[in-house]
């Protein structure tokens, strides 16, 4: 049961210290006249405690906010205790080491990042950057020394990682400049020093006849029913694969024909509305008979408390005979984008339905419902068009799909 201000004020000192528990690891340690907020969490398999301040200087509301901030750090692969220590060291040493400043920057930024994104940045810096320049004063690191770091990454064949590491280092340097601990950012001098990366495209089928063949193959899928329904829903909603497999029943309103994905699960961290066509509703009703008692539309094979594996949809496509060069789960987005643009739908409505990023962050917070009437009409027309393609020619082989 959650704590209340009344319960805290009513707590009397005991013969021994005792705890008043709130939620999600937060508790108040009552020891005599003192009351300390503590947050219990697990990091890398070990149980740890983090001090969150003293009551009443830190209210229940503030303690919960600090707990939630710490939980986001843990979810992002950051140990809150270590991050706090690094922050104190950085604040006490204006000309401190690159690693200390970088960890402070990650800690400050973690609440704005998706956990997976934060984990990738942390791992990239820890493996490829800190061992070489982590202990050096950030103001002493110049372009030649930084170039050696990123070229080590390039030489092992990870060119894209080298570019991303350089980008992250630039963000750390600019943070150090903003906080008065460095006067230079050497990364602009390295522009063009690394070979450009090749743009990667997710394999997708865009030829109408080949799309029809794919849809018929999906309808005939003989694997798990939940997997078949995921394959049938994917082209009707064309969200990102992670957004699909992590969908929760609380987000879906069948009566309103609407799926609202919270910003925390979106790539651009903005809430997103998916209008549901009649065909999508039919798939969801069938799915609800199978998984409606659990939290997730597509639970994992090991239990309802976990989502379907990220490889499930792609593995099912391979089972249907589509190689990774032919089609991917992400390819349903390219399929919809290509054909909807060809059909003359308003590009802004298509981009909004694809949930592509809005450069103006203030406008982005309010435009998740932008073009919604047109998007509703577009999504129903798109589902009808897929039905037409599904009913097309009956013989289109994989070679046709590959050539599309």
- Main β-sheet description: 4 strands, antiparallel
Tell me the count of domains. 3
DSSP E strands, number: 9
Do you know the CATH topology of the largest domain? hpI Integrase, Chain A
Fourth-tier CATH superfamily name of the largest domain:
Intergrase catalytic core
Q: What is the rounded distance between the termini?
A: 58 Å
Query: What's the helix count?
Result: 18
Query: pLDDT below 50 for ≥5 consecutive residues: which ranges?
Result: 358-366, 393-404
**Which secondary-structure class do the elements indicate?**
alpha+beta
Integer average pLDDT: 86
* Sequence of strands across the biggest β-sheet: 1-2-3-4
Q: Which CATH class of the largest domain applies here?
A: Mainly Alpha
């Amino acid at each position: 049961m959650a704590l209340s201000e009344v319960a805290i004020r009513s707590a009397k000192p005991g013969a021994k210290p005792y705890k008043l528990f709130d939620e999600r690891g937060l508790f108040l340690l009552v020891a005599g006249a003192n009351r300390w907020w503590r947050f219990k969490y697990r990091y890398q398999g070990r149980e740890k405690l983090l001090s969150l301040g003293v009551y009443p200087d830190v209210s229940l509301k503030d303690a919960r906010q600090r707990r939630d901030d710490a939980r986001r750090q843990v979810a992002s692969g950051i140990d809150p205790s270590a991050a706090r220590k690094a922050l104190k060291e950085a604040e006490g040493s204006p000309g401190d080491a690159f690693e200390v400043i970088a960890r402070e920057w990650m800690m400050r930024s973690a609440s704005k990042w998706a956990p997976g994104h934060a984990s990738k940045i942390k791992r990239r810096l820890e493996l490829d950057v800190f061992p070489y320049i982590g202990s050096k004063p950030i103001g002493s690191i110049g372009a030649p020394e930084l170039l050696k770091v990123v070229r080590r990454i390039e030489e092992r064949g990870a060119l894209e990682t080298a570019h991303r590491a350089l980008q992250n280092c630039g963000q750390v340097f600019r943070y150090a400049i903003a906080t008065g601990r460095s006067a230079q950012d050497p990364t602009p001098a390295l522009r063009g020093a690394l070979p450009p990366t090749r743009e990667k495209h997710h394999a997708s089928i865009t030829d109408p006849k080949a799309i029809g063949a794919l849809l018929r193959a999906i309808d005939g899928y003989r694997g798990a029913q939940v997997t078949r329904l995921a394959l049938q829903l994917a082209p009707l909603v064309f969200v990102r694969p992670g957004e699909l497999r992590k969908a929760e029943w609380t987000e879906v309103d069948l009566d309103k024909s609407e799926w609202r994905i919270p910003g925390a699960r979106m790539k651009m961290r903005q809430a997103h509305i998916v209008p549901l066509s009649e065909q999508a509703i039919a798939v969801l009703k069938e799915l609800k008979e199978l998984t409606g008692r659990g939290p997730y539309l597509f639970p994992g094979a090991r239990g309802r408390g976990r989502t379907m594996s990220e490889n499930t949809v792609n593995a099912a496509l391979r089972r249907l005979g589509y190689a990774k060069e032919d089609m991917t789960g992400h390819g349903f987005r390219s399929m919809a984008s290509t054909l909807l643009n060809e059909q003359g739908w308003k590009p802004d409505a298509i981009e909004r339905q694809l949930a592509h990023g809005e450069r103006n962050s203030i406008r982005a917070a309010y435009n998740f419902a932008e073009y919604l009437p047109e998007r509703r009409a577009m999504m129903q027309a798109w589902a009808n068009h897929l039905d037409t393609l599904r009913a097309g020619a009956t013989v289109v082989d994989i070679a046709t799909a590959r050539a599309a």
